Amino acid sequence: xxxxxxxxxxxxxxxxxxxxxxxxxxxxxxxxxxxxxxxxxxxxxxxxxxxxxxxxxxxxxxxxxxxxxxxxxxxxxxxxxxxxxxxxxxxxxxxxxxxxxxxxxxxxxxxxxxxxxxxxxxxxxxxxxxxxxxxxxxxxxxxxxxxxxxxxxxxxxxxxxxxxxxxxxxxxxxxxxxxxxxxxxxxxxxxxxxxxxxxxxxxxxxxxxxxxxxxxxxxxxxxxxxxxxxxxxxxxxxxxxxxxxxxxxxxxxxxxxxxxxxxxxxxxxxxxxxxxxxxxxxxxxxxxxxxxxxxxxxxxxxxxxxxxxxxxxxxxxxxxxxxxxxxxxxxxxxxxxxxxxxxxxxxxxxxxxxxxxxxxxxxxxxxxxxxxxxxxxxxxxxxxxxxxxxxxxxxxxxxxxxxxxxxxxxxxxxxxxxxxxxxxxxxxxxxxxxxxxxxxxxxxxxxxxxxxxxxxxxxxxxxxxxxxxxxxxxxxxxxxxxxxxxxxxxxxxxxxxxxxxxxxxxxxxxxxxxxxxxxxxxxxxxxxxxxxxxxxxxxxxxxxxxxxxxxxxxxxxxxxxxxxxxxxxxxxxxxxxxxxxxxxxxxxxxxxxxxxxxxxxxxxxxxxxxxxxxxxxxxxxxxxxxxxxxxxxxxxxxxxxxxxxxxxxxxxxxxxxxxxxxxxxxxxxxxxxxxxxxxxxxxxxxxxxxxxxxxxxxxxxxxxxxxxxxxxxxxxxxxx
Length: 720
Fold this sequence. Notes:
single chain; 4-stranded mixed beta sheet; about 15% strand; iron; LSDs-like; JmjC_dom; metal-binding
């Protein structure tokens, strides 16, 4: 019996000589293991190699293969001290904010106060508290309405701003918002909001009343100061961290200095692939990106990685698939695994929502049809390629449950696991929360989308310009070439030429778009696509049938543009100047801008990137991502991506100690966005992660110092 299909009537069966148990038929070998020969299977079958993708094995509960040795105790100690050195400034900021509010409370009560005098909030372990005004997470001290029917919470930043009579939360975003003059509804809403806020004022002594009912309060009580943690806990963390790191320091960062290791690698025939030219700026100290091979990541490479990471530079790691078992990421393999798992869970429909990149409307499509288009291509009736993209499929909550083997494979592929491992990374602050605490959703997440070798100009398969609140690593796990014939290319070029001068291409596709009318829905636009019928499905699948000799597309899967943090101000100014030149939902021109980056409505094509360079002398790192490559994106670096092929990317977010201050800066930016903005809520809670990260690092460092004689004296060094 074939282990893959479980059929017994197959005549051409390959018997594994290694385990002497499993058999695979020739048909299954050709279909599910095309990269392997019968001889390969005979010597060691997929089951022996731990990459069998039969239905049963895809659901097997396994743990990720350990690719690196567990950190020795000295390394573990260095990592713990490194965490403390990086996060100490933020710990002091958190404590200073609390002390300022405690002093304000002392003025209100007229007596000297300590943290013990402040009532502790009664919370469950998995409770999260958010400011009811600005939606930012509350880390410790806050004010709360004592009215049991109200319980309004407000953060310390809003307390401070209210005392200074600022319009809180939305004031900055409102001042910077751009909109078409014909759109007056937003202006009216802001004026109404400001009028209500003007009624909410602190008292002369600094006390703050509960806000009016229009703002979510009760206006019947004064807000009381509360704390979440034990008294003086943060101060104790600071003292312990200072004591442990008293003889340690971080080396200064010289941003004017280029990496000498990367410069040396350029002229070395065996190392030149470890760097990649990604920019051509005049200040050329960071034009090269560090690009190591995953199988060569020894201690020296870890130090090299940290040198670039502390400077806020992206890093590309090649050949990550060599660190896994070789499990297939073919879309139909993933589909089978998900389908079988969902049968066990429920009978939920197998249709999914995808984004049509032509008009940025949501379309509903059968998942199998989507994957068929991923492999073979789809087009609109006009002949224009149809670019669809799924985001976060399967949903993160189902990823490990429905795709356990792929989840384990992804973790095994993650380079620099001390940073990236989502459950045990020593330098990943997101792993330090206590058991039972509510954890942020940091992935892994899948990004599955079609692609086109050339930039189409309209309808490109892109991830628009945005800025993540945390660090991230993105691995390209699968690509598929959609092969265009000479005739198809000629037709596409004709369409592009006919309409390249038009400001709005919408008319071109209204008669040929598969989508029916678009309608508004909360959070975006959705269109109903009648592609579930056999006739519609057959037509769509036939659009790209190969009738002539196909032409190969490029080997890279995606093109990335990542902007430097120091260029964000100029990038924002450029978008504020040219925002009316961009299109978004329904392929209409953008009619308003709240925040040019956080709105996620812009994609800078080659024309705009050239214009940005000419007008503001800003150039991103631009590079191609190949199969098996992991792209590290530092928090605070705006970036955009365009697929050159159909791609499956898997990403996970992490919080490195080097970038906690950048995460705080982004949290403050998100805090000032309007209440209904897509990026508004503080889902990361970086201050909370920092406190628990410090607590864990202190405990580990103390325990390790007891074990390692002389470790305190030897810690007098730069921790890189």
